[in-house]
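DATA SHEET
Item: assembly model
Revision: 1
Owner: S.N.
Input lines:
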Amino acid sequence: MTAPPVPRPHALRPWARLPLNAHPTLRLGLLILLGTLGVAAWGTVALPGAGQQDLAQSFLPPLSPGHLLGTDQLGQDVLAWTSAGIWVGLEVSLAVVSISAVTGISVGLCAGYFGGVVDALVMRLVDVCLSIPPLLVFVAAAALLRPSMLTLILLISVVAWLPYARLVRSVVLVERERGYLLAARLSGATRRRVLAGHLLPAVSTPVLVLSSLQAGYVLLWEAGLSFLGLGIRPPQHSLGYLIAEGRETLSTAWWVVVFPGAALALLVLAAHLIGDGLRDLVQQDVEILGG
Amino acid sequence: MSVVASARNLSVDAARGRTWMRLVDPVDLDVHAGEVLGIVGESGAGKTLTTRALVGLLPRGTRAAGEVTLAGRTFDARAIPRQELGRTASVVLQNPLTGLSPLDRVGRQLTEGVVHLRLMSQAAAARRATELLERLGLADSARILRLYPHQLSGGMAQRVAIASALMPGPRLVVVDEPTTALDANVRIEVLRLISELGREAGSGVILVSHDLALVSRFCQRVAIMYAGRIVEQAAASDLRATARHPYTRALLNCEVSIQARSRASVPVIPGAPPAPLDWPAGCVYAPRCPHAWDDCVARRPAPVAPGARDAACHLARLPCRSGAPDVTAGPAGREGMPDA
Amino acid sequence: MLSVQGVSRRYPRSPRPAVHSVSFTVDEGTTLAIVGESGAGKSTLCRMLVGLEAPDTGHILLDGQPVTVRPGRVSRLQMVFQDPFSALNPLHSVGWSIAEPMTGMSRGQRRAEVVRLLTLVGIAADRAAVRPAAFSGGQLQRVALARALAARPRVLVCDEPTSSLDVSVQAQVLNLLLRLQDEERFACVLVTHDLGVVRVLADDVLVLRSGEAVEHAPADDLFTCPAHEYTRSLLAAVQHEAAPGPAVPAGPARSGGESDDGH
């Protein structure tokens, strides 16, 4: 029964206080993310001709005049293309995370709150879905559908909502038995109040941590599918497509693969660092409160 | 009686941003062979941190300073080697099941520590485990050694935890709040066993608790802690009748026992203990003390000497007073004063 | 007023019933203490009393009506839990939690009522917007009491309300419970293993062992001459080596706990 040191008032939600000094992981992740986005922004603004092809200028090496990162076999500027690919990747990532979070949270809340038959059925469905290798699903879908950004987003979301459902359900199962929730029921809380006023805020922080980690995975999935030709294709830009394109000429024109690859790696790294940093932030709160 | 463990100028700080916050002011402690020393205090008084610092088990984000002597060897409190914990000192945790891994059988968990530290052979360890369990009242020890922790009842688990702590024959055993997870009967039995076995083996036992009544029953000496310092030290038998520090007397007063009056108000200590950052410059109890006077606010009472019968209180130490200070209702203003 | 008749409950995979054929009544303004060791079925009984679980057999009636919990209706039986830190939603202010049972009131009325309740339990009213993490265990129990009172309960069920609190804080909370019951006249069912707390608060005592009631008597009778040998063994276990000396006067005893909201 020793008191934890410093029971000072502080919010549980991490975004209400961000003491970046004490969280190097989070700080580093944000730094990398902002740095990469900054380069992408500059690339988009300073070089408007992302899709301009000029066969006379194909395979120019980096630091050539007018092409800081070189050109690919069609003469397209690698920096411009990479920047555009970064934005597309982020778009897909945000869209997928939003859709899958909303779906997963809803399913998880229902399964955890209603319990019983509903819970059993839903979780068996989730288990079945989780046991199917996503790649098979994607390949099969690609054979049937025309690849586009929208189908790609929907396809990845079909797989990405599952971890949310699992996470939310487990949080709900724990919170359901806590004193404050029993007291809420005794206070006449309606179902809506319990779900929206109590359970949803309780899952918000774990969901946030999961989302930042998911964002990284979705980026990889998108790049991977585009690499295989199952995802985004010109005229839209994708880092994966560019990497695929440059694959054959890797030994002579390495810059076509390396720069988009580095951009992808940095973004995914940033996503993981931010996710880990957020998790540490939340964990500290939990430890202090738990005593 | 020889001293099995002692601390001099032991203090504990916690990291807070870039600075350190003091949680335990320098304390001096002695534990003698065969005795049970009780450390009593409320939440935040620093009793767990003090005992953890004594055996080198402080949590992350804290640091200790001062000198610790275990079984005759002196260490700097900042760096007590890990092996000491296994050999000379043991800790019995509050919740026995947290100290036992759910993956291994009880017998294996009892023996692997001492065998790993090369204190005895596997065979000798097995014999000792059986002996200890029987001594602790578990007659079918052979069967119990083959069980997994989740198959034990609460009382059995606590006895296994005690056996585990006694396996290496430690000179010092720290028992931390053994009261919350157990029923009254089991609790008393457990404490009785610990003090008996400790005495037989010549070990010193430190019993940490917030329950003054329990501690007085099982300890020879008691140290009362408040806001990071030891405010009084006395023989347990003396404490009730001749407590000198106003905090001790107030604490004794507000305990509820079955002799209390039905449906009548319980005496309280007005206010609350100060947080570590708000410790006053003078006596730390002065803001709540009905007998505080100017000297108390200005000057900190000197710490209690180890092993002495003393209270860290200016009033209690005044030489003209014999025995306890005259405790009539103090200056009227103090009582009704709302806390700051 | 609160009438419990022949209530039993057994969990599906358990060989023994958690609660077996327990009956008692509690009148307005009085306190019944339910004493027993862990595993005696006290928590199950608590949940059934407020309607969070239904008994397998038997009835629990408040003024003749069965006790149920329905969404949208504030229950007249409220509960105070053992762990103050999980008794309040950590993400909302204490004022929000206290206002949960208040229905049919305007925002201004709710705010005023929250202030009134906080003052009643001895917490500074300006802390209504603060989250639970900033309070100590004792303060949180007071807030929990304020929330329970906001529902204007007829019955308050307290499940080990002070066992996780320090001795001096426990004293303050016990005094508060005494005072509140005198003023608000609710019936109180107190579940605890601490006989000292029972002595202070209880008018009647029910002793529970392995889910069955082994003794049910007024507190004075039970403590002076316990009838059942299990009760005697419980009492014997807490006899201290000597009765405490004459109570040292620390000043005139107050009828309410002092608020410890200074920090």
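QC remark: The interface with chain A takes residues 14, 16-17, 21, 23, 43-44, 46-49, 62, 177, 180, 210, 275-276 of chain B (CB under 8 Å).
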